[in-house]
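Example record for the data management plan.
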Amino acid sequence: NLVGMKADEEKEFTLEFPKDYHHKKLAGKPATFKVKMKLVQKKELPEINDDFARSLGNFENLEALKKSLKEGMEMERKKESEEKRRQEILEKIVSGCQWEIPEILVESELEKIMTEFEQNILGMGMKLDEYLSGIKKTREEVKKNFQETAEKRVKSALVLQEIAKLEKISPESAEIEEEMNKTLVYFKDQRDVEKNLDIKRLYNYIKGILTNQKVLEFLENL
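Corresponding structural encoding:
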């Protein structure tokens, strides 16, 4: 209905909401929209040449940009392949573990997963209640679907923790601080850091991530 409209042009049209629309009061009902085109713009792609490459950063020419992109993609593929291989090793170890895991840990992990899930829903412009209403499920029913994922996460964390303990695997303080500094550059000044971050908690979080990475490297090299 907006295609072909010019700047300052006004138009009125009627559309019907989908029958499965998440707001039941509006589902399947017609609605009249009045619009005014404020601005019409045309997207023009820049010419791909040396000047374009230089405008993107420290690239001497287009060839340098292409080389950088190629190296970046190769590094990303290598990283993905490495991560997949390490996860396969970890899954084999976890699948062979038959111990009972504390229910409190599983429940805690389930709540973390549900928090992540809710944030994803909010990112789509919906509230969790609206989403649940649309799929006709309760929070507990959705939560139950993540039970197996939560159990795997807890088992994996316990396995990595135990191996790190047995093999005395731990990152150096300098490594942790280096990763912390990479995180802190996203904050503009010290006031932002103090306001938004718990430094001790960040330190322990990054230490945990680096420890897990080192354990996975250890398993990969066995």
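Summary line stored alongside the record: The first strand starts at residue 10 and ends at 16.
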